[in-house]
Structures are given as C-alpha cells and as structure tokens.
C-alpha cells in the first residue's frame, strides 16, 4: 500500500448538529468508529469502500443532556460484538449494543457530569466525573468509588496490567490506583490534566491545559515532556506501533508526533479540536467544535479527491483567526509584507506566516509535503490598539515570546520574556539554555529592551454605570495588581530585522492584555423583582403569589416563610407551579419568588439546600417561549452564582449552575436574559480555576463568542468579552 508519510484529508463526515466531543474505534464492524456529541447522540460510522468515506450505521439516544465521552467495551460471550459506553452531562453512563437505539442499561451514581470513560478486561468500566471521583463498574453495578482528587476527574484509563487504573484531574495531578487504593500520585503538570493514553504496561502519556504532553513511567518518573501546541491540549491517541501518537487542542490543530518530535501540524477550520482516535489502519479521526468529523490518512489510496482536498483548503482559508487565541503575535498591519513574501519557502512544517493583502491580514501555513504555503484564514481583531493575550510557552504565560533564527534555515529558538523580568538575566539564561556564546549578551539584552519599550501601566476610569440599576459606582480594573499595558507605544521592528513575525533573523511578539474595566462581575448581591403588575395578578390561579413574591423580600417575612418545615413546603409549592404543565404566568412568578428569596439569609439557606431540585426544574423552563420566564430563569442562576462566588469547595453546585446556564444559552434569545446569564458565568469563573476548567470543558467559550459583536445593548458584548477573557 503506497504511503506518502504525510497525512492528508481522507474525508469529512457531517451528521452531528453540535460539537463532537468523543471518538473511539469499534471492535465491530471492522474499521468503524463511534462518535458522541453535544447534540445528545452517539453514532456509529461504517467505512464505505465505494466513496472512501463513512456512512452512519447506527444512532443511539439515551442521554438527556450533552454527551461528552465514549469508550468501547470488548466483545464477550454475551455481547460478541462488544458494547458502547457513553458518559454525559446528565451525570449518567449509558451502555448500548449495536442492535438497538436505546441503552441496555444506565449506570447512575455520579453526582455530576461524566467526562471520561475507559474499558478494561472482563467488562470492567472506569468512569471519571466532575464530582471529583472515579467509579469502577462491572455490568450494571458500581464495584468501588475512587476518592482522592480535589477537583474534577477529566481523564481515566485502565492499564493493561490487571487492577491498575489511572485518573487525571483538574487538581493538576495523576493518580495510580490498585484495588481501590491510591498507590502513586504523579505531579508535574502546571494546569488541569485533560487526557491520558496507554503506551505499554509500564508507560503512559498525559496532556494538559498547560499545553504540554508528558510521558511517564508507572513507577512515577516523567521521562519526557513534549511542547508544540500553543493552547490547551484536549486529547491523545497512540498509533498501532505503540510509540507514535497524535494530539488535538484549542489551537485549532491536530499534531502528529513520531520518535518524540512533532512532524506534522494539521489545522482545522474550527476553534476547538476536542477529540481524536486512531483506526487500525493508521488513519486519524478528529472531532471538532464545528460538528464535523474529519478523517486523515497517509495512504495514497484513501486520500480524498482533488476536488475534496481543494474544498477543505478553501474552507480553511475562509476561517477567521483571532490572534488572542493563537500564536500569531501582536499584529501591526503597516509592518507586514505583501504577497511576495510567500515566494520564500518555509523552514519547517506548520510554520505560520502573515501577509498584508488588500487592507486585511491573511495567515498562511507551510506544508513540507507540498512545498507551498496554504492559507489557513483571515486574521481579525489584531492591531496595535488591540494587543493579544499572554502567550503560553512550555506551560507558562509570557508577555512576549520572540522567535530567534540564529542560522538561516536552522532550527528556531524561543526567547520568552515578561515585562517584569530583568532583560539582562533573561538574555543570560537564553544564551545558557541554547549553548550560545556569552559574547551575544549585550546584543540579546538590547534586542529585548528595544522591542519591549513603551509598555507602561494602564489606568481605568474611576466611575461608571451599574448595568442593572443605572446608578454610578466605583470601578476597579479587572487585572489590578498585575502589569496592564495599553498606554504606551507599540512594538515596532528595529532596522535590519527582515521579517517581524517569521522567517530569517526574525522575531515574533505578542503584547499583553489591554486595561479592561469590569463593572459586571463578580456580582454577589442578589437581583430582585420589585414591581407588581396588578392586571396580571387578576389573571392567575394564585393571586397571592405575586404578593408573596414582594413580601419575601422583607427580612422577617423571609425568616418565617423559609424556616425548616415552612420553607420545604414553600419550595415544593413553587416547584409544583414551575412544572411543565403550569401556566406561564405562574411559572414566571414562581421563578421570581425564588429570586427574591435570596434577599435574606434564611431564604438563601433554603434555596442552597434545595439547589439540585430548584435548578433542575428551572432549567426545564428554558424551552418555554416566554422572554419574562427566560429573564427570571437567568436571574435565578445569577443569584445562585453570586452566593457561590468565593466558595471554591462548592464545585458541584457551580458545575450545576454552569450546566444550566450553558443549556439556557442554547435557546434564550432575549438580550437581557443573555446578559444576566453572561454575568452569572463571569461570577462563577471569576477567581476560581476549577470553575474555569469546568466552563472550558463545557465548550462555553465557543458557545458565547457570538455575543461579542452585540452592540445593542453594549453591555452584552462588553460582558461577553470579559467572560471570554476569564476563560482564556
């Protein structure tokens, strides 16, 4: 079979309506794979030899919320074709066979989203959850619960040796378990562990939000660290040879690693490449936030037609790239070269080059296999007035990461630098790390000084308007206590530097964040509904409900109505009125009453105790086409978020709030409701790394990006950008 040693598109597989979050190669049929999606379905795809593509063989439904992970249970005497296990945001694991669309059985026990699954010998199943635990299942029974992580368990895998299991967590650690007992804790990652993959009985890979991949021995030693991605890494898959592997992440890329090096970078026309798997024939399957599954192959026989390859390239070229989410650097259009710059060949596969074309900026990537520059999108939002975010390099954030090409055509060297660092010490460390002559010390230090000067502390206005009440209030910069640029001049290329971004004798830089004034979140004081509508009161089943809504704002009434027995009865009544068969007016007033219960301590305590039932019932009302209900629902989520702010131990409660907000944003159209949900999201993630991790894994960034452009009212767009800033 002819091989080009370079992976190219084999086919694109549409079918899912939302993000593809999990993939797994099946035992049967041969060459097939299964995918799961936020659209709540799992689908089996069968290879179609006549078209080099895949056709949908089987669709499975069983989850009531997003499906986030999948694994294959090996064939047994009872199930000779194996089983498919899926985990979802409904806290359940569904187990399917290939001959029916509904689950054979549902595994219940987790208290929050099931985000990772792994199958072992004899039908053993291991599940990881946001509830900070992993559970071991045999058939439909939970055999044991693995407790020890302090944050969500985002990755699990069963090692070939019987009884050994691994869990990776948002607490930045990996744990090795045997017979339910933690035998070893692996530390080294500087952010949440997102994926695990088995190499052998004694070795495994891990990937993390710190943009690194690590290779570990089961004994505890980290034997190698791999860097190439520029953002969070979500998934790993090992090739059949047991050594080479593939990775995907938030930087829009799928990267192929052989003999320890990243040998190929494939960009996709989607921001988040959530998952990947390797088929027995060596082909790679990738799922992304655009809902499309793409298969890549190095076999000439399975490469897509010239027409399909061109269509993929055209789709990629039409993508828009925000430099704040990638590694393109701070873009100053007047300094960019024109199209003639593409006449020079690149130095390495995946190298990025920017050019100025007709008043806008285009990004190109060098393909070593085709010896040409391929357009990967148009750059939007980059200018000297809108510097991009800090750059992640080797797991740490820097204000600048310069690319230094010492010898033309030789390997590039990275020089990371923070404005608060000493440029001479940074230059000294750079020369030592790269075995360069100390004679270059002055030259490197002066280069750093010249290309970072002009960045000074920014300032924020002192007063502004409260977005809820319109009243003036004191403002504080979102990034107070750390370096905030924005008032000085921007970096310009010194004379003699051929290309300010890539190429020979080049450097690329990225400024830090602008001063951002945040008047929206965290919002910890409750939002109340204070006005009554007399006409509406006469037209509802319970006229006293609207009066009650106003009365519970009084501390004494709140205390008496929300005491132990009376409080439970009140809550049950309101939940009954919020039922799916209820009248919209009653549903709205019941929601508003719950919002107003947050006015005093007794009501807050009651609603926190009843949180799971209240938010579950409230979330069901998102499907009611009524903007007043949507605003009340958003306000209830916001009030819960405000009360939970600053309480990192309440991770389960925050996870439910994030999930409710995310599902509500799928259907809510009213801008005020959207705004309050955005403030709720910002309040929950502000200052809480675990909550940020949960929000990222829900795909909230890609979900809310569309609101950035909203200018009427401006507070929606402003708040959205602030939330995205928190989640970067």
From TrEMBL:
WD repeats lie at residues 107-137, 146-178, 226-258. It holds the Pfam family PFU. Keywords: Cytoplasm, Nucleus, Repeat, WD repeat. GO terms for cellular component: cytoplasm; nucleus. InterPro entries: ARM-like, PFU, PFU_sf, PUL_dom, WD40/YVTN_repeat-like_dom_sf, WD40_repeat_dom_sf, WD40_rpt. GO terms for biological process: proteasome-mediated ubiquitin-dependent protein catabolic process; ubiquitin recycling. PROSITE patterns: PFU, PUL, WD_REPEATS_2, WD_REPEATS_REGION. SUPFAM superfamilies: WD40 repeat-like. Residues 474-726 form the PUL domain. Residues 365-462 form the PFU domain. It comes from the Eukaryota. The keyword Plastid does not apply. The keyword Cytoplasm applies. GO terms for molecular function: ubiquitin binding. It is found in: Cytoplasm; Nucleus. Belongs to the WD repeat PLAP family. PANTHER family: PHOSPHOLIPASE A-2-ACTIVATING PROTEIN. This is Phospholipase A-2-activating protein.
